[in-house]
Amino acid sequence: MRYLLDAEGRGALARLMKRRPLLGFDFDGTLAPIVMQPDEARLPEATAKLLERLAARVPVAVVSGRQVLDVRHRLGFKPTHIVGNHGAEDELDGPDPRVVMTLGAFRERMLRMEPRLNEAGATIEDKGASIAIHYRMAKDPVAARDAIAVLVADLPAGIVTEPGKRVVNVLVEGAPDKGDAMTRLTARYGADAGFYIGDDTNDEPAFERAGPDWVTVRVGPRLDHSHARYYLNEQAEVDEVLRLMLAQLDVTG
User: Fold this and answer.
1) Is the CB of residue 215 less than 8 Å from the CB of residue 230?
2) Domains in the chain, please, with CATH?
3) What is the pLDDT of residues 55-90, one digit of tens each?
4) pTM confidence score
5) Is 121 left (phi over 0), alpha (psi -120 to 50) or beta?
């Protein structure tokens, strides 16, 4: 991984923007700063204005773990496309019905154990095509993780878990992921190159499946096991990347 804002990274961005790129962005921790209460997450106004300018010139996709309806009102601009539920919900086609049905067996167990989870400081967010169990607000994170571990110890067939930042995601094995979403959107919008940036485990499929000429970026300290080719030190640097993209579009016309 190389730092995106060094000379090599800036050069890669410049080459990308001379083509017909699709620009893909995760939401929480990437476009929007991480907050203690997930419902308070919003795009900073300056970021929204930069993205609005970009979306007027190239396809801009927001690919989030949130539901489409949830993330849409938090943006402050209209992207070209929104994908939710880690890739399993398209704003045009809705959530994958097979995924929603497969999670039904887990929901029954989850609802029975919800009081115990809440007592430990964990909260459930059922997003239809995926389920998130948050423990960011838990006074005792260890106790919260232990309660979640009991819940997911004996999963129904076809259901898997994926840890994130103070969250455990419950997903359907083989469900469309962010890599699938970026591949699908690249074809839909006739892009010949791509950019994707995210900050968590569920962004790795998009990094891993990116074409050799894509620019993929992980927000956060450099991680050798990530499939992203570049990194940013912190979320606050995203605006600088957007400004560089716009400047290159102005140069190329």
Assistant:
1) yes
2) 2-87+191-252 (3.40.50.1000), 97-172 (3.30.70.1020)
3) 999 999 999 999 999 999 999 999 999 999 999 999
4) 0.88
5) left
